[in-house]
Write a structure and sequence with these properties.
Elements: H1 2-23, H2 31-62, H3 73-97, H4 99-109, H5 116-120, H6 126-140, H7 144-160, H8 179-185, H9 203-208, H10 233-245, H11 247-253, H12 265-285, H13 291-312, H14 316-337, H15 342-360, H16 362-369
Helix pairs in contact: 1-12, 2-6, 2-12, 2-13, 3-4, 3-6, 3-7, 4-10, 10-11, 12-13, 12-15, 13-14, 14-15
Length: about 375
C-alpha cells in the first residue's frame, strides 16, 4: 500500500504542476514528452529497482562484514543518509564521464522541458548500472531497510528538484541540491555541463569541484545537442547504446520519419496517464493475485506503453496496437480475472472510452496519410 500511495502521489504532483504550467504560467504542456517521461519511469520502478534491491540483499547476506549493523541505531541512520548520497554522487558523476554509463543516463537528459515528469524519466537500465556503486554499503553492513528507506527519500527529493515552479530556495541553497542547482545540471551550456551531480546534499559537489550556481545571465538550455528521434520508449532507452556499439543500425533507427498517421497531443497524453493507472492497479492488487494475472497485466502495461509510443509517433501500427489495448485486451483482462474490482472496472471503462474516441480520429488520420 505504501508503494501504491507513493506512486499515486508522484502522479498527482505531476498533474498539479502541469495545471500550474498551463493556466498560471500560460505555457503549453508538452504532452508527448510528458508521456515518454512517465513511460520510462514506471517500467524502471518495477523492474530496475527490484533488481537493485535483490542484488543489494544478496551482497548483504553473503559478503557483508556487518559493521554498520552493530552501531547504535541513530548512528546507523546518520551514516545511511550521508553514505547513500555520497555513493549516489559518484554514481551520477561517473554516468556523465564514461560513454557506456552515459548511454544509460542520457535518457534522463533527453527531456527538453524541466518539470516533475522529467524527474520520473530514467533509463530502464539505470538501476542495474547503479548496483556497483551501492555494493560498498552492503559490504559494510548497512541494513536493507535503511537502504530502501533512505534511497526512497533521496529519490523523492530528486523528483522534487525537477519542479518547474520553485526558483530559489533561500538558505537551503547552501546545504541541499535544490531545483536551481539541478536546473544547472540539466543545462547543455558549456558553463553548466556535467555540474551539480549530487542527489540531496550540495557539499559533495563543492568538495570535489563540480558545483556551479545558476547564473541569471546564462539561461539554462535543456535537452541534448542532438535530440533523440523517437517518442517510443523502447527506442528512447535503446538508441543511446546502438549509437555506441552499432552505429550503422543506430543511424537507420535514428532517422526522423514524419508521422503518417498523426494524432493530437492530448490523446497521447491521456493515453500515457491511462497506462500509468494500469500500473497503479498492478501495484495495488498484485499481492492478492496468483502468478498468471500478474504476468498478463504486466505484459499488458508493456504492450500498451509501446502502443502509446507508436501512437505518439503517428505510426499506423501504433494506432492498431492502441485500439487493441483499450478496446480488446484491457476489457478482456478485467472480465477474465478481476470482474469484482470496481476501481479496475473504472480504469477499464475510461480506457474503452479513450479507445473509442481515438477510433473516431481514425478517419481524419487516414485522410491525412493519403
Amino acid at each position: 500500500m505504501g508503494i501504491f500511495l507513493g506512486t499515486v502521489l508522484l502522479l498527482v504532483f505531476v498533474v498539479i504542476e502541469l495545471v500550474i504550467i498551463r493556466y498560471h504560467l500560460k505555457e503549453p504542456i508538452p504532452w508527448r514528452e510528458v508521456v515518454v517521461n512517465l513511460n520510462s519511469g514506471h517500467i524502471l520502478m518495477w523492474i530496475g529497482r527490484g533488481i537493485e534491491i535483490v542484488a543489494y540483499h544478496f551482497v548483504l547476506t553473503y559478503f557483508s562484514f556487518g559493521w554498520v549493523a552493530a552501531w547504535p541505531i541513530w548512528l546507523q541512520w546518520v551514516f545511511a543518509v550521508l553514505a547513500w548520497d555520497f555513493c549516489f554522487y559518484w554514481l551520477h558523476r561517473m554516468h556523465h564521464k564514461f560513454p557506456f554509463l552515459w548511454g544509460v543516463h542520457e535518457v534522463h537528459h533527453q527531456g527538453e522541458h524541466f518539470s516533475l515528469s522529467l524527474g520520473i524519466r530514467n533509463s530502464w537500465y539505470s538501476s542495474i548500472t547503479s548496483i556497483p556503486f551501492f555494493v560498498p554499503l552492503a559490504i559494510l553492513g548497512m541494513p536493507l531497510e535503511q537502504f530502501i528507506v533512505v534511497g526512497s527519500v533521496h529519490y523523492f527529493i530528486q523528483f522534487y528538484n525537477h519542479n518547474r515552479i520553485v526558483n530559489k530556495s533561500g538558505w537551503l541553497e547552501y546545504i541541499m541540491i535544490t531545483p536551481s542547482h539541478h536546473r544547472v545540471h540539466h543545462g547543455t551550456n558549456p558553463e553548466y555541463r556535467d555540474k551539480n551531480c549530487g542527489g540531496t546534499f550540495v557539499f559533495w559537489d563543492k568538495l570535489f569541484g563540480t558545483f556551479q550556481a545558476e547564473m541569471e545571465e546564462v539561461p539554462v538550455e535543456y535537452g541534448l545537442h542532438k535530440p533523440v528521434a523517437s517518442e517510443n520508449p523502447f527506442w528512447v532507452n535503446t538508441l543511446p547504446f546502438l549509437k555506441l556499439y552499432f552505429k550503422k543500425s543506430a543511424k537507420k533507427a535514428d532517422h526522423v520519419r514524419p508521422p503518417r498517421w498523426p494524432i493530437a497531443d492530448l490523446w497521447v497524453g491521456l493515453g500515457g496517464i491511462l497506462m500509468f493507472c494500469l500500473l497503479l492497479a498492478y501495484i495495488l492488487w498484485e499481492h492478492t493475485w496468483s502468478g498468471t494475472p500478474k504476468i498478463i497485466l504486466f505484459a499488458l502495461v508493456f504492450f500498451g506503453t509501446f502502443a502509446n509510443g507508436g501512437l505518439a509517433e503517428g505510426r499506423r501500427w501504433g494506432w492498431v496496437a492502441w485500439l487493441l489495448t483499450t478496446l480488446v485486451l484491457t476489457p478482456w483482462f478485467y472480465l477474465a480475472f478481476v470482474p469484482s474490482h470496481l476501481l479496475f472496472g473504472v480504469v477499464t471503462l475510461v480506457g474503452v472510452l479513450h479507445g473509442l474516441l481515438v477510433l473516431g480520429q481514425w478517419r481524419k488520420a487516414a485522410i491525412g496519410a493519403q
